[in-house]
Amino acid sequence: MRPGIVLRPAVILLLLALVLQPEWFEPVFAPLAPEGAPVIYARSSLLSLSLSHLGLVAAATAAATLVSVTLAILVTREAGAAFRPLSRTVTNMGQTFPPVAVLALTVPALGFGAGPTLVALFLYGLLPIFENSIAGLSTLPPATIEAARGLGLNRRQRLIQVELPLALPVILTGIRLSVVISLGTATIGSTVAARTLGEVIIAGLLTSNTAYVLQGGLIVGLFAVAVYDALTQLEARLARRSRATSTP
Amino acid sequence: MIEIDRITKVYNGAPAVDAVSMTAESGTITVIVGTSGSGKTTLLRMINRLEEPTSGEVRINGESTLSTKPHLLRRRIGYVIQGHGLFPHHTVARNIGAVPRLLNWPKDKIRARVDELLTLFSMEPEQFRDRFPAELSGGQQQRVGVARALASRPDLLLMDEPFGALDPIIRARAQDDLRQIQRALGSTIMLVTHDMEEAIRLGDRVAVMDEGSLVQHGSPAEIVARPASPFVADMVGGMERPLRLLSLVPLSEVVEDGDAPGDALPEDCSLRDALSACLWTGRTAVPVEREGALIGRVTLEAIRARAELSA
């Protein structure tokens, strides 16, 4: 029996319990809280913080995917090849710029709240998706692409019916990396008043309440594990069909 | 009828194909044979405009290929490449139905055509329709590749080293199948290969290319018996020429009355097969049969006479 069969439901159940019934864990976290301080974070509902956290990550990743994949399609066409180094530099900058610095710079323009966090996550998420999309679109089996031209598919049909579906597993890997990074990074959004699970961690840090820190960190970590696992399975399912493809 | 009219392709100032003209009758197989870099693949790819000719033109049944948009032209021309190029994410049925789908055939017509082709290639439709290419053997993948190219009943079938990725036994079978299917459907085929053996075996006409030029174009027997240049003679393989010639002559042409000992050969075997049988079993003649009935014999003497006559 594979460990995933037991571990997967266990992770999901633990996550649901932590988010929906946090008071169950009071005895576990109690030794970590300072004397007389509350053990379980109750200033706002963990469920609504989780949903808002996931929503931010989903929105930022969706935007990053749209931009990265579009850009990768353009620079892997013959006409766009010249722009490949430039677009690589731009997306690399997005990755090297620390998200904290992005928050600091965007708050004056966008104000406090979700806006700066979205921008930071979007910029941070571009690189893995872009690089993987380029890799996926430029390492397609040459015989298949040649055959697609030879059969009379036009450029758009080749892209939509052949190139994107074949590159999809690799693109999804990029999206998975980006989502996992964003799930962790989103926590710092709470320093500029975005509603994320970071709120719990930051409250814990400000009041020296390790129970809060651990509670917030655990939920974020479990979300990352669950999402990573779900996307990995999706990729495997997609790749299984086209694996061991045409012999070159 | 396919007319290639002074077609030329220049890369960086050097001609890869230099003013090649050739005509192929409908319902025949023309095999273009040459070494690598001879321009044979470029010539083939200019017919369906995967390469644009620098000058010259190709006419299919009188109509210039330049008068249609390239992707629309290609839907009328079947194309088979080495390593089959099947879509790995589509089932066998979707692969075969690719061009009919581009041509907006109704669904049930596509399904009927797919089943018809699978049956023609001796692949049980029930069993193979929904498989993915990765689940097929090399020979089956290759057959699906040819079936896909034939799906819309194209005017012309182009094949670029179609059997190059197959092992020798499967290759010989694939060649026989192709010959049979071509006879049954009356397809016009242009096939590129570097293998003279394959050219002689499959071609009604053989075109030999060297350094971008067409050096000889004729029947396999002409190419073997009267090579136009030392290069062609070399391609045919000097020492083996008599054997190649014998492989082109069926027993039915030299059968004579009389008896011979041992197992009989069918009349559509070649003299080369008969020679081989004689040498192997130490006989001086082999009996010949037609549909199981003896019709005479072929003697070593007659085989030798035939080889000398043609040389």
Automatic annotation (TrEMBL), chain A:
It is a multi-pass membrane protein. One of its GO terms (biological process) is transmembrane transport. InterPro entries: ABC_transp_perm/SBD, MetI-like, MetI-like_sf. The keyword Transmembrane applies. Its main location: membrane. SUPFAM superfamilies: MetI-like. It is found in: Cell membrane. Residues 50-231 form the ABC transmembrane type-1 domain. It comes from the Bacteria. The keyword Transmembrane helix applies. The chain crosses the membrane at residues 49-75, 96-115, 121-145, 166-192, 212-231. One of its GO terms (cellular component) is plasma membrane. Keywords: Membrane, Transmembrane, Transmembrane helix, Transport. Pfam families: BPD_transp_1 (PF00528). PANTHER family: GLYCINE BETAINE UPTAKE SYSTEM PERMEASE PROTEIN YEHW, GLYCINE BETAINE/L-PROLINE TRANSPORT SYSTEM PERMEASE PROTEIN PROW. Belongs to the binding-protein-dependent transport system permease family. This is ABC transporter permease.
TrEMBL record, chain B:
This is ABC transporter ATP-binding protein. GO terms for molecular function: ATP binding; ATP hydrolysis activity. SMART domains: AAA (SM00382). Pfam families: ABC_tran (PF00005). Residues 2-236 form the ABC transporter domain. Belongs to the ABC transporter superfamily. GO terms for biological process: quaternary ammonium group transport. InterPro entries: AAA+_ATPase, ABC_transporter-like_ATP-bd, ABC_transporter-like_CS, P-loop_NTPase. It comes from the Bacteria. PROSITE patterns: ABC_TRANSPORTER_1, ABC_TRANSPORTER_2. PANTHER family: OSMOPROTECTANT IMPORT ATP-BINDING PROTEIN OSMV (PTHR43117:SF4). Keywords: ATP-binding, Nucleotide-binding, Transport.
